[in-house]
Amino acid sequence: MAAYETQVVVIAGGPAGLAAAVQAAEDGAEVILVEKNSTVGGAANMGMGPLGIGTKYQKRQMLDISIEKAYRMFMEYSHYNVDGRLVKRYFDQSADTIQWLEDMGVEFEGAFRYFAKAEPTWHIVKTDQGIGPRAASFMNMALYKRAQELGVKVLLETPAVKILKDDDGFVCGVLCHDKDGNDVEISCLAAIIATGGAGANPEFIKEQTGYTWGKDMFNFAIPGNVGDGIKMAWEAGVDRVPVRIEQAAGISGVDDLPQCVGNVMSQPNLIVNLHGKRIMDEEMSTNPTFLSNAISHQKGRILFSIIDTNIAKYYAKNGVDEISLVRSDPDVSDFFDAIKAAKDSGNEGMYIADSIEELAEMLGIDPDALAETVEEYNRFCVEGDEEFFKQKKYLRPITKAPFYAAAFHCGGYGTVGGIRINEYCEACDADDEPIPGLYAAGADACNIYDDSYMFLLPGNSMGFAVNTGRIAGMEAAAYVQDVLEEG
Ligand SMILES: Cc1cc2nc3c(=O)[nH]c(=O)nc-3n(C[C@H](O)[C@H](O)[C@H](O)COP(=O)(O)OP(=O)(O)OC[C@H]3O[C@@H](n4cnc5c(N)ncnc54)[C@H](O)[C@@H]3O)c2cc1C
């Protein structure tokens, strides 16, 4: 069996683990980082950037977002059903963290909103190819480089499997496996768990959240993120707190079509459920968390976005009403070409019909019910939406065939939560007592959203990962120092 000795073991090399390793090493600790995959970065390699509040970008861009404003917003949004001290420490540190990242070579495009109603807290990492998905991989590479400069030993393809404690309950090591399944034991004084949740573990998701992956839940599933850290922590005596999906709705079956299709169908169009009824002011559907929550209450956990040819022509000519940074191009003039291609290729994500009744049959909705809703909606377009108060500018009648529909399902990024931590990122038992030497950060320990991801302050989950990683790193290094001083 291979054996190592160090002061701090960081379990995993996503942004939380990388930040923890760098911070602990900067604070003088000897660190080994173990990562299950052959590369570092985790889910964050797919993302664009972390939250920052009170940063120089916001000041330069004259954006009105202070820690007090963000904190009050956040706590009200989560109904104070979360650890306010942890949230405050995270927000307080977030601007410093943006600077800390810059000091190690990360560059940012600025501070952005995800969608119009969000605050500009999303600090998108600069790449060599402009703004786009995967930008945050540049941040991860800078963290990895910095960790190596500081002498952090990184063991790739080395999953941790168990936290080891001595007879007095203090962390004394981490048991891992090498890529052939052989034991690797690392003795240490402190361990930081940051394995990114369980988004790729359908059984765990079912057990913890009730969703069935691939049926009523379509979250991103990053290989390797199967809940190892959560289970290790629970086994080590840490309190179990609810595991949730970090929800964000998705449109089904249009990924192989040009982006304009998803862009058009996710506008504040008419949205109905399987009963053919509206359920919300569709403008609010531009917040993917709100939309996913709304879907989760519907029969079959599905909703449909419906437009007619006139609306499609309007968007194709004038551009869409709402853009997000993920679907950032308002120009959808290629929509009709894309629809033709969808038809020719037999794409099943787009429903195209010559009458509302035919569309209803395709969607599995009672035709009379849908016809009634469309008739009423068309009246609202003239008289105002007395049902859900949708703004006039988004109200466009559904009259001209062909009619188009696409389905929304519950989706999300992965799981958040499971491990109870306090504001020092100490992993705690059911009496709030820290397990001595055990810390957790990132998605495994992200218990701050209550039941709904806080998309109004975007960059929140990567922000939480990097900032709690840093907190865990600094607290673990200080703990090691104390233990060594006490002999
Ligand atoms: C497509 C996409 C886009 C996103 N965009 C954004 C965004 O722009 N802004 C934002 O705030 N959030 C975004 N997120 C969410 C964000 O990426 C996560 O919140 C963040 O990556 C969580 O960091 P983490 O370090 O906790 O976990 P992860 O980044 O998931 O890293 C976990 C790591 O743990 C490793 N691991 C697992 N088990 C073990 C084990 N037993 N031993 C050792 N290693 C192990 C995994 O291999 C992985 O490397 C996005 C997510 C996705 C999927």
The CATH class of the largest domain = Alpha Beta
Terminal CA distance reads 28 Å
Mean pLDDT: 96
Q: What's the total number of strands?
A: 20
Strand content: 15-25%
How are the strands of the biggest sheet laid out side by side? 6-3-2-10-20-19
How would you classify the helix and strand content by structural class? alpha/beta
Major β-sheet annotation: 6 strands, mixed
Rg (C-alpha, Å): 24 Å
Q: How many DSSP H or I helices?
A: 14
Note the overall shape: elongated
At the third CATH level, what is the topology name of the largest domain? FAD/NAD(P)-binding domain
Describe this structure in words.
- The protein has 487 residues and is an alpha/beta fold.
- It folds into two domains: 2-246 and 415-486, FAD/NAD(P)-binding domain (3-Layer(bba) Sandwich); 252-409, Flavocytochrome C3, Chain A, domain 1.
- The protein is 34% helix and 18% strand.
- It is built from 14 helices and 20 strands.
- It has helices spanning 15-26, 56-60, 67-77, 84-103, 136-149, 202-209, 228-235, 259-265, 288-296, 309-318, 335-344, 356-363, 367-383, 460-486; strands at residues 2-5, 8-11, 31-34, 108-112, 122-125, 153-155, 160-165, 171-177, 183-187, 190-193, 218-219, 244-247, 250-251, 270-272, 303-307, 350-353, 403-409, 411-416, 426-428, 434-440.
- It has a six-stranded mixed beta sheet. Strands 13, 14, 15, 16 and 17 form a five-stranded antiparallel beta sheet that branches.
- Helix 1 (15-26) links the parallel strand 2 (8-11) and strand 3 (31-34).
- Helix 1 packs parallel to helix 5 (136-149), helix 1 (15-26) runs parallel beside helix 14 and helix 3 (67-77) packs across helix 4 (84-103).
- It is elongated.
- It starts with a strand and ends with a helix.
- The mean pLDDT is 96.
- The protein binds flavin-adenine dinucleotide.
- The site of flavin-adenine dinucleotide has 38 residues, from helix 1 and helix 14.
- Flavin-adenine dinucleotide binds next to helix 1 and helix 14.
